[in-house]
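hey so u asked for the seq, here:
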Amino acid sequence: MKHARLYRSKNFRKGMLFATCLFGAYLVLVMVFRPSHERNWELGQERLPRFAFQDERLTIENFRNFDWKGEGIANVRYETRAFDLRDIHSVDVFISHFDTFEGLAHIFLSFGFSDGRHIVISMETRREVGESFSPILGVLRQFEIIYIVGSEQDIVGLRTDIRDERVYLYRTIASPLQARELLLKIAEDVNGIYEEPRMYNTLTNNCTNALTRRVEDISTVKFPLTWKTLLPGYFDEVLFGMGLIVPAGDFQETKGRSLIDNIRVHRQSPRYESDLREVIGEVTW
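ran it, structure tokens below
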């Protein structure tokens, strides 16, 4: 028994030493790697968007509307676009799977207006030229945050047509008022990044929890603590289980119907935004 206690004590000390070393290494990263807006950013991440409000008028600077020709190749179009907040009527969720592992995916939102236009908002890692996303590096403070704000032709089309990702579009049950309140809350985050750079964290400040926190801010919804919230590829199951997305049968039927691709929807279509929703069976404007 004495030897067993001594063995456990030695293991405990080794474990504590290892944890202390890890924590010390993390503190070094915190002190050494400081967030910045001044780096050699990859194409599509050079400019930060900014929201400006005057009464019911919303103006977005650096609204991205690229015409992508290939990975890293595009006709660059940063625009200034204006919207009337009284015309907002919906918010949809996109989940884009970029890896063979189902759990690795990216989640972003699209706010719909009565004239058929949409504002896509996507919280992403801001990468320098030559960098690639890594969940591990995301924990180790190696990426700044950027909010990409732009068109569905750009942000969705890039993933379906150029990167060949598997993308799902889910309609939410949000009312026009809730969609408006959520947009205003996320606009605070977009402008906050414009004013001051911040670091991305795979666990605590990622594409999923940055959005769910804002949903909780404007509603009575409380998202459960589950491993599925750490893996965005499974987050549609959470949304379906909570009744936050419009069902089309059970979950598997809903997911199957929500798949969009570049075969049924052409990125160059002048009705692209409407076409996306016709594919999943939504009544369009």
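DSSP finds eight helices and eleven strands in the chain. The chain has two domains: 1-32, 35-279.
lmk if thats what u needed
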